[in-house]
Design brief:
Layout (H helix, E strand, L loop, with lengths): L1 H15 L3 H13 L1 H24 L2 H6 L3 H26 L8 H9 L1 H10 L2 H13 L5 H32 L2 H30 L1
Length: about 210
């Protein structure tokens, strides 16, 4: 059972790390509410769990055999996050400080927050590298220990996002639209910074 609780701890740890996933979850949750934050977070948790499974199944030699795989992930994630960040900064300012967006974007975000979370989670190279590192550090696990660990991760990641969504819902209830507007623009700036960093990581590795 010790390995099960270790898995829960690691599942929570990877989700609480500062980065694009946490930024998007908090920013969009404050703007769109509990339901969006929860479904988006659970979508990214699915990606984390899959990467954890793959790492413990032995994906490391496969990734090592394709040296351009991780840099391409950095590149795609960087472009995507930079686009999200620019949109988060530009759209509210264009709307004169209000958080209204075109209906087509509202429909997309509200209808598919879970799938959006899955896609962004899988395009996060940091998560894959994290789980590869964890699997290497715990390479001494025997088979049943690894199973307990991965099951723990499968619970730890969703538990964190359920707690985070509830915290965001309470914060949203006491914040004015103006404060949420500044959070949105600030979150967009953070995403732009992370996107530029990812692009930098990709370019220095590829070239």
């Amino acid at each position: 059972m010790l390995f099960f609780f270790k898995g829960i701890f690691m599942g929570v740890l990877v989700c609480t790390a500062p980065g694009p996933i946490l930024t998007i979850t908090v920013k969009e949750g404050l703007k769109r509410g509990y339901g969006f934050a929860l479904r988006f977070g659970l979508g990214t948790a699915v990606a984390d769990v899959v990467y954890c499974y793959l790492a413990f199944l032995g994906i490391t030699p496969i990734v090592a055999g394709y040296p351009h795989f991780i840099p391409v992930m950095w590149l795609v994630a960087g472009v995507m996050l930079l686009g999200f960040g620019i949109n988060d900064i530009y759209s509210p300012i264009k709307a004169h400080g209000h958080l209204k967006e075109p209906k087509k974007y509202q429909k997309l975000d509200f209808s598919h927050p879970f799938s959006r979370g899955v896609i962004i989670g899988f395009l996060n190279p940091g998560a894959l590298l994290f789980w590869i590192g964890v699997s290497s550090a715990f390479s001494g696990f025997i088979s049943y220990e690894s199973i307990f660990f991965v099951v723990g991760v499968s619970l730890g990641s969703p538990i964190w996002f359920i707690l985070l969504a509830n915290i965001i819902a309470k914060l949203k209830g006491v914040m004015t639209e103006k404060i949420i507007y500044y959070f949105t623009v600030g979150g967009g700036s953070i995403l732009c910074s992370i996107g530029i960093y990812f692009l930098y990581k990709s370019l220095i590795t590829l070239f």
